[in-house]
Amino acid sequence: MARTTGSDGEKTEAAVREAAVNLIARFGYEAMSMRQLAAEVGVQAAALYRYFPTKEELLFTLMREHMEGLTDAWETACPISADPVQRLSAYVENHIAFHIERRHATHVSNMELRSLSPERLTQILRMRTAYEKELRAILRDGAEAGVFSIDDTGLTAMALIQMMTGVIVWFRPGERLSITEVTATYLSMTMRLVGAGTDGETTHDGARALGRARDAAAL
Amino acid sequence: MARTTGSDGEKTEAAVREAAVNLIARFGYEAMSMRQLAAEVGVQAAALYRYFPTKEELLFTLMREHMEGLTDAWETACPISADPVQRLSAYVENHIAFHIERRHATHVSNMELRSLSPERLTQILRMRTAYEKELRAILRDGAEAGVFSIDDTGLTAMALIQMMTGVIVWFRPGERLSITEVTATYLSMTMRLVGAGTDGETTHDGARALGRARDAAAL
Predict the structure, then answer these.
(1) Residues A161 and A173 in one domain
(2) What is the pLDDT of residue A106?
């Protein structure tokens, strides 16, 4: 009986998270009430507070799990190879794949930071910085190895992340392009942006690695 | 007397717009009430409805004027020259300058589209499409002239716009870099992304024009 309750509890908690992401993405965090959320899930408002003692606790949990998921996905996707082009390709592919599957959660994570308490905001921003630092390290390694040509590592990292996350604004499955085609084009744009050789003109290994990355993305 | 009233009216309307942009950027459109807005401006709620009969009318006005301002700024900034590199440089400079000065209005315009009625949403999206079409035309002209190397004009336009608008997320005046330095770096990244030659390696005119654009941005 306890086990069944636990299992139901987990299901309810998952339902709460999913409904919260959708409601916040649709109306905004400040406009969503716990009562509205409870009605959406089909439970009493009091039941919600068992899982999330405050509304901000719920928002923080959604954001923390989003960032943990992204970090875990990157740890899995990060290649053993030290080659900057391979690592950058993996970063781009992982970033686009992760966010395209979590459009609403990404909107919530990017837009509702204003509603976190200072301590919790710091915690989330620290996780983001750690994730972005991985990209800066790849860019710096590539520039030092002479594979990339970069003016400003920090600005390039921000530009790439915003360009990639921006895919969720316009991409809809089943339209003109598949995720694979979009990712291949973004890989190509990324490699050009970091100066990893333009198609057919480069003399170093970047273009070959890009070709491999494109083949992989096309599978 | 009538003139004074008119002038006060214009001041009040401007104050309403400014307060609305700030409140919506901070709490979200759905969470903002007309009563809260009236209190912020220091007028009776009834007075607001003289300027904006509905809350959605207010949101729509903010978004329409934002897009009209962007379009007007681009019409002024658009060079007479047909050179794709010069036109792309002008587009990037204008886009960054416009949005960096209107951080809150940009957030509102990008995040609150969900709250517009279908007809008004269509109107705003039509204005956006027209503005983005200008960029696609520059990219297409550059590709046809052999100055740019582009895989997909539509995707490249979206990537560039999201990369550039993203500046408002992290840029704060008075920090490490000036607007001029940020713009110069984004110009350089843009030119590389569209394949307009990497520094010192290109054989066509792109790099020279880029140099000119950088000099201009550095003034």
Answers:
(1) yes
(2) 95
